[in-house]
Amino acid sequence: MKRTHKLAILGLGHVGSAVLARAVAMHLAPEIVCIDTKPGVAHGEALDMMHAMSTDLEAGINVYSGTWADLKDTDVIICAAGPSIQAGVSHERLSLARENTRVMKEIMAEVVKYTTDAVFIMITNPLDVMVHLAATKFGYPEGRLFGTGTTLETMRFKYIVGKHYHVNPSDVQGYMLGEHGNSGFPAWSLLHIGGIPIDQLDKYFDHDGPLDYAAVGHEVVETAYDVLESKGWTNTGIASGACRLARAVFNDEHIVTPVSMPFHGEYGITDVSLSLPSMIGKDGVEKRLAVPLTDAEVGLLKKSAASVQEVLRDNKII
Fold first, then answer.
1. pLDDT tens-digit map of 155-181
2. What angle, 0 to 180 degrees and rounded to 10, lies between the N-to-C axes of helices 236-250 and 151-165?
3. Is the bond leading into 169 cis (omega within 30 degrees of zero)?
4. What letter does residue 75 receive in the DSSP assignment?
5. Annotated catalytic, 91?
6. Which of the chain's ends, N or C, has fewer CB atoms near its CB within 10 Å?
7. Helix 213-231 with 151-165: angle, nearest 10 deg
8. Dihedrals φ, ψ of 79, to 5°?
9. What is the pLDDT of residues 75-119, one digit of tens each?
10. How does DSSP assign 1-70, residue by residue?
């Protein structure tokens, strides 16, 4: 008999608990194990969610707290462990690198004792630094470990552009690339809506004025901090993005979306992990797309790489 899908969530703080709620709402997997360095937190989140199974909204999903050993037969791991950016302090994800480098080394040492087969989706910040550490230092198979990367920035980008042209954001085709952070950038040359390229959008869609490229790029980055300072943390958007990636793995969907993985010479870049459009299926990243970019966009990608590489060097990862 074929075993049903199993999801593990590492870290049940604001982000991990949002991942759990979204995963259950999506009926993402019939078995979900919650693991946290504070076992009581994982137990409480799992028990609270199981109480919700008394309704007929989420019935039939087994949510429980577990240990590292429960990873041995897991299909997908979503990692949200480690401290996050706090409201009222530095808005630089890279500032978390030193502490979360230690945390991630401890986590990965435990994970690989039990599996290198599960597709591992990283959320922990600084995302690209954590991905590069986990993907290159622990023997995980190429493509099976990747980060959400600029998935969330891309969601925000599509929302902003869609609002400008009064269209559904899901019909906006475009990407934020590079770092999950301040040096991420919109790849304007790839943007289209309904097959209509960026230089013709004003002819086909309602709008209240010209699209200010610089302002949109700035808004995509800054809107994260608007959420952070308003509610104290960000969790709903990234939880939805991570669960969407997990669903693509479970269902072998071959969706194309930007995620973070080590570069192997694309655009002349090595020794760093950043986001490029990638095909996601049952084995994780099944194809990495070095999409055609303008010279200016390649320059921004290299600038993003340099920013992340500085932190990788400071933490002796490269």
1. 999 999 999 999 999 999 999 999 998
2. 110
3. no
4. S
5. no
6. N
7. 120
8. -105, 115
9. 999 999 998 765 555 545 566 899 999 999 999 999 999 999 999
10. -PPPPEEEEE--SHHHHHHHHHHHHTT--SEEEEE-SSHHHHHHHHHHHHHHTTSSSSTT-EEEE--GGG
